[in-house]
Structure formats: C-alpha cells, structure tokens
Design brief:
Chain lengths: 265, 207
C-alpha cells in the first residue's frame, strides 16, 4: 500500500515538474492559471478519454440499469465515503458534523443494508461533502495554481496534495482482493459519471470556452465547499481583481509551507 | 395612434406583474414560479416531445419578468462594465439574457423530474438582498444539488440577480472568459462573440 501511495506522489511530482516546464511558454494572464497551456492540453486529453470510453459506458449504465439499482450503487459508495468525510469534518474542527457523519455510516451500514439505502438522510442526518483538500483550505492553505490532472481532472495545487491523501485513505483502494477492488473502483467511476450526464449539454451550451467555464466553475465550487456553502460575497469586480492578485502572490510564497505540513503529518 | 395603443398595452401588461411581485415574499416568489414552470414542463405535450423552443418561450414568459438582467450582465462583465456605453450595455444585456435563458431552460428540462426541496428561509425586516436556497434531489445521485437564488428588492419588487448551482454562480462564472474577450477585442468583441454563440445555439435548436 505504501508503494501505491509513493507511486501516486511521484506521479504528481512528475506532472507538476512537466507542468512547470510547459508553463513558461503559455501565458494568458489569468493569475490563478499560470500553466494554462499544459492544462488545456490535459483538458483535451481528458475530454477525449471521456468521449471515447467513460461517457459511453456511463450512458449505457444509465440506460440499462433500473433507477433503484443505480441509486443503491450510488448510496453504497456514498456510505463508504462518509467515513472519511467524518474524519475530515473532525480535522476541520466540526465535531457535530463529524458525529453526524459517523451516525450516518452506522445507520446506513445496518438499517440501510450495507449502505444500499440512505436511511440516514430520510432521518434528517444531512449528507456532507468533505475531502482533504477542503481540510487544508480550512486550515488556511491557499489554492495555489490551477492544474488539470490526467483522468482525475481539475484540481488546484492544494487539492492535488489533498487528493493524494484521499486516494491513500480511500477504503475501496484497501480492499485486499484485487479483482474485487478493481470492479469497485471502475463501478464507482461509472456511477459518478452517470450522475453528471444531464449536466453535459447544459455546460456545452452555456460555455463560450468550455475549458475556462469548467475551470472557473471548479474554482467557485471549491471556494463554496470550503465555506460549507456560504462563501463570503465577492460582488465588486474591481475589488475582486485586486484580491485575486494578492491571493495568487500569497499562493506562490506559501507553496513550500504546504509540503512541510504534509511531511509532518 | 397605433403607437399609443402599443404603449398602453405595454403598460397594462407591466402593471399587474409589478404590483403582484411587490407583495410576494422572495421565498414564495421562487417557489411559486418554480412550481408553476415545472408543472407546465412536466405536462406540456410539445415540451415532452423535445420542443426546446417551447421551453425557452415558457421561461421568457414566466421566469424572465422576475430576473434583473442588467444587474446580472454587470456582475458577469465586472469592472469593464463601466467602460461600456449605454448602447453597448443594452446589447450585452440582451445577448447575455438570451444565453442565460437558454441555459436555464436546458437545466429545467434536464432536471424536470427531480424533486425540489425549499430550504428554511429567514429574512430580517427591511432587508433588500436575500438568498433563497433550494435543493434538487436526483435519484441515483450521491447528494442533492444546491440551487440558490440571490434576489434584490427594488421599485418593482424582488428580482433575481444570480442563480448559484452547487456553489457555482451561473453569472460570475462568465467573468474571466468575458474579461479575456474584452482584452482581445474590446466590448464590441465580447458582443460579437455572444451574438455568434447565440445564433449557433439557435441554429441547432431549429434542426
């Protein structure tokens, strides 16, 4: 398992290095996206992969499987995820929410038949969305540069680091029976993708430039998630611009710090 | 003569809508409009048969009067808004409205069968800027999608000036791509891009 972790880390380091090299030649002026040239290329690669493999499979999955089964599959993975969501809530200093997440796992794993039915939500225990990237954000780590990872898609430097921890602590990744683990991992990707099929056309038609639409949506969404759905308002355009530059500068200077934090953990 | 009749007709259309909106609380407004529009989308034969234009017409008739598109466009354009002449602001608003109406119509059609939950709404007396929170429950999804409406009170009652889906503002999400367009081709460049986008979408609807 350690090996998997380190190979993931080394992959990220390689990507970051490659991104850094390519970054020099691609400038479009967005302070949050210094390696836009690399990112656009990777975005194109992911789009191709999605178009050829992931989306067709997800479309078939959605068309063939009855709705209750799809819900059961989504609930099953949601229940597994609740475990680490609870841990992250605890790390973010939200013991109440963490307790609720633990309660969800307890209720759904038993009364909900191994998580297939989300009994907890109907009992009023709300589902939360947390991950290590958000926890780092809560602790004050800035986003850093926007980066499009192969397969995983949009992240920021901070969320890439968070993702490494998410992958390492993912219970599905720790299933010892390798074929079972692989089936579970693939099914989860397909189930997640099927959830987003309806949004495809909306994004396609709404975006002037799909790459920047997806990027800006990702950054907004993360900002909202870190503040649990209540991010501070940023209404005045000119004020925001200044804030962005400050944030970008802070992001650069703060970059060694996240690594140190990670090493200490 | 015809001109006066036109003005009178226009005024009579505006009056009841304005008076009605002024009395409706923002959360009730969102709920009423959503319920009414979804009901029509779920039952209308042409819409069920895939007639996109009909959804757009419906949104323009029922939803559009409750939106403040000038404010939305100003928010999306950001600081460059002040650079634009009143005439440019008017064209930008019209084009951006068409794009948003289409996006919103697509979203309504795609999610018409999901259940909408209205989150508890609290408002202080005298408040003029509020957020009405709803959640879309999608079967087969891990968690509901948050759909929030920001409303502002002015002379004509409450008007929506932002729609936020899962933390993403459908309005400010355009800010950086608008800024890029303006940097490359000025305000007129942005207008040109928006017009081209709208006419290509319109062409694909007609097909």
């Amino acid at each position: 398992m350690k090996a998997v972790f380190f190979s993931n880390i080394s992959k990220i380091v390689v990507i970051a290095a490659a991104a850094g090299l390519l970054g020099g030649c691609a400038t479009s002026g967005n302070p949050k996206d210094p390696i836009e040239g690399f990112n656009r290329a990777m975005f194109g690669f992911n789009e191709g992969l999605d178009k050829v493999i992931i989306k067709p499979v997800a479309t078939g999955y959605e068309a063939v499987l009855p709705r209750p089964i799809q819900t059961g599959v989504a609930n099953f993975f949601s229940n597994i995820a609740d475990l680490m969501i609870g841990v992250n809530n605890l790390l973010q200093g939200k013991p109440g929410q963490a307790a609720s997440d633990a309660g969800r796992v307890l209720v759904n794993s038993t009364m909900g038949f191994l998580g297939l039915i989300d009994v907890a939500s109907s009992m009023g225990m709300e589902k939360h969305v947390e991950d290590v990237g958000q926890t780092f954000g809560r602790w004050g780590m800035s986003d850093g540069a926007y980066v499009v990872l192969p397969i995983f898609g949009p992240r920021t430097a901070r969320d890439t680091l968070g993702l490494a921890f998410d992958v390492y602590t993912d219970p599905v990744g720790h299933v010892d029976h390798i074929p079972t683990r692989n089936v579970l991992l693939v099914t989860r990707v397909i189930s997640d993708r099927a959830e987003l099929l309806k949004a495809d056309r909306i994004i396609e038609e709404a975006a002037l430039d799909k790459y920047s639409y997806v990027r800006d949506a990702y950054l907004q969404r993360r900002r909202s998630l870190i503040h649990d759905g209540n991010p501070p308002r940023e209404l005045d355009g000119s004020a925001e611009q200044e804030g962005d530059n400050k944030m970008a500068q802070a992001g650069e200077s703060a970059q060694p710090a996240p690594t140190q934090t990670a090493m200490r953990r | 003569m015809r001109f006066i009749a036109f003005i009178l007709a226009g005024a009579s259309l505006l009056l009841p809508a304005g008076a009605q909106a002024q009395e409706t609380a923002p959360d009730a407004l969102v709920k009423n409009v959503t319920t009414e529009v979804l009901e029509i989308i779920r039952t209308d034969k042409d819409i069920k048969a895939g007639n996109t234009q009909r959804v757009i017409d419906l949104v323009e008739k029922k939803v559009l009067p409750h939106f403040n598109f000038t404010r939305m466009t100003a928010l999306a354009v950001g600081k460059d808004w002040r650079q634009a002449s009143p005439a440019q602001q008017k064209i930008l608003t019209d084009e951006f409205r068409d794009l948003l109406v289409r996006t919103y119509s697509n979203a309504l059609t795609a999610y018409k069968n999901e259940t909408v939950e209205y989150r508890p709404f609290k408002m202080q007396t005298g408040e003029t800027d509020v957020t009405v929170r709803t959640q879309i429950h999608q079967p087969g999804a891990r968690q509901p999608i948050a759909l929030d409406y920001s409303l502002e009170k002015n002379g004509n009652g409450w008007k929506v000036y932002d729609v936020v889906v899962a933390g993403v503002s459908l309005v400010t999400n355009y800010r950086s791509s608008f800024a890029t367009e303006i940097r490359n081709g000025g305000i007129d460049g942005l207008i040109k891009t928006l017009k081209a986008k709208n006419s290509s979408l319109e062409a694909s609807t007609r097909k």
